[in-house]
Amino acid sequence: MRNMRCLAALVLFEALVFNSLLLASGQSPRPSAKATQDNPGARTETKAIFAQLREQWAGNLHAKRVEASAAEYALDAEFIHPNGTVFQGSAAIRRLFQMVTSSYDSDLQFQSQRLEVSGDLAYDSGRYNEVLTERATKKGLQISGRYVTVYRRSGDRVWQIVEQIWPVPDKSGAPVQ
């Protein structure tokens, strides 16, 4: 029952964040009739674009490409860590990636469960599974949980992360054999 309440609260939070961002950008949170028409081709293309963005994000982390990782974020982006720490702006996010990649190896997979796009804003949420290996000890930890990533399309039509939230993991720190 507790998990259902947490999931419901997360979905409500996602909707509130997305609608707040839409209103702040001057866009309506309600799509036009044309936007709601069933267009499987466009939906498939949109899903493919965001699947590629997720894979690129995980690949940059895995390969320790700090500059490429930082470039995925807008200059005013925020990364909200599971412990509540907010890394605000590209310089702080770059330092976060430098810290993580200097100590850990990451094998991360995303399972998107919800993707919504409205104009130049989008959000993607779902689950992740990660094996995080501390390089000094070679000990791995299995971590799984949920994520929410909010994107904004820039003037040059590139999707960049403006907000990324990793709530407290479902399973944290289970040793990997």
How would you concisely characterize the structure shown here?
With 177 residues, the chain is α+β, with helices and mostly antiparallel strands. The chain has helices at 2-24, 33-36, 40-62, 66-71, 90-103, and strands at residues 73-80, 86-88, 104-118, 121-134, 139-153, 159-165, 171-175. The chain has a single domain, classed as Nuclear Transport Factor 2, Chain: A (Roll).
Mean pLDDT: 81
β-strand amount: 35-45%
Question: What is the CATH topology classification name?
Answer: Nuclear Transport Factor 2, Chain: A
Largest sheet: 7 strands, mixed
Overall geometry comes to globular
Top-tier CATH class? Alpha Beta
- Alpha-beta content class: alpha+beta
Count of DSSP H/I helices: 5
Number of domains: 1
Low-confidence stretches: 1-37
- List how many beta strands DSSP finds: 7
Which CATH-level-2 architecture?
Roll
Give me the Rg, rounded. 17 Å
H/E element order: HHHHEEHEEEEE
The termini sit apart by 31 Å
